[in-house]
Hints:
Blueprint: H1 15-21, H2 24-35, H3 44-59, E1 64-68, E2 76-80, E3 88-94, H4 103-106, E4 110-112, E5 115-117, H5 121-141, E6 148-154, H6 168-171, E7 177-180, E8 190-194, E9 196-205, E10 209-210, H7 221-233, E11 243-251, E12 257-258, E13 261-270, H8 273-288, E14 296-305, H9 314-328, E15 334-337, H10 342-348, E16 353-354, E17 361-362, E18 370-372, H11 373-391
Helix pairs in contact: 1-11, 2-5, 5-11, 9-11
The chain binds zinc ion.
Amino acid sequence: MTSPAGEDVAPTSSPFVAAVAGRREQMLEFLGRIVSMESPTQEKAHVDAVLEVLADAYRSLGFACRRLAEREYGDHLVADSPAEGRPRVLLVGHADTVYPLGTLASMPARREGDRLRGPAVVDMKGGLVAMLFGVRCLLAAHPRLHGSIRVVITSDEEPGSPTSRDRWPELARGADAAFVFEPARPDGALVLRRKGVGIFRVHVRGRAAHAGAEPEQGASAIRALARKLLDIEDLAAPAAGTTVNVGVVRGGTHPYVVPEDAEAMIDVRVATAAERDRVLAAMGAVVDREDVPLTRATLAGQFHRPPLEPVPGTERLVAMIEDEGRRIGLPVRWATTGGASDGNNLAAAGIPTIDGMGPAGGRAHSPDEYMEIPSLFLKTALLAGLLDRLVGPEAMWR
Length: 398
Ligand SMILES: [Zn+2]
């Protein structure tokens, strides 16, 4: 089988493989264009410029686009397909990158065989291209949809979505499925689970005293904190995916003073909501315990990223993706990762969410970031096929 571009395409029963093959040059050109527009999170005007290019592209497909205005960070883009029906599919990406302005000078976008290198090629400008062209290929085949598609592109994902985080419950309301276009793992695996992340601070207040003259008048905050920290680290459960890291400890003033204050900062990661609840309860009990008479401890912090884990409906999407993968010659594998994304917030809102829908690649956030070019085309065809099954004219989703 030969594509309109004259390249060989593996035989498949999906019309979208050939449709994507016919757009290969166009896709790489568009990717080159948005990679050449540097968009670090902290540079609002630059992130907004990328967002506007994407808004234009979705407008040309008939989508209604609106920008959620932000002051400090870039705006967020919401693009809705003309049809209003069910099911509602949510496609999620981010336009911001971790690379400061001027990075292109030392790290120009360049092709090396089947790999494209450059800032944010895989995290996640390649994913933005897969999203756009997946939708474009679907609409070229079926201009009238049965369900609806909402595209959300945020501008502050890299620092943990400080402004978009609280918008998700509203943006995602009524969605039946969500696909997040963060990169696939280097081996091509999609992401079904991401750990939830919490940062906590334990502070102990004791009582200062002269360590030599009247130590009995003192209450050591450091002694109390030390006992607690060992027990808190022991809450880790590697088999369940729970990690606990006491990363910072501070306390006391001088060797000859019984310490009045001590504090620690702790990073906790969990794979499930059940583990999150267990660790929270146990950590609270350890903190409340009076390990040294006359000391008092407090716990601050929260899980700012809840765990991404399967919810009712996820299994059905998994089966659909595996089936569509077989149809287009993409072996589908699944992975768990400790890093968080907006997918964490979507799953917490109860929406079946598949992450890692973007092209495969690696070394994100480093000078060696790369994207596997064939993977970009396959993931685009995968999305077009999934959208066809979900919102195409013959969609059977109920
Ligand atoms: Zn990303």
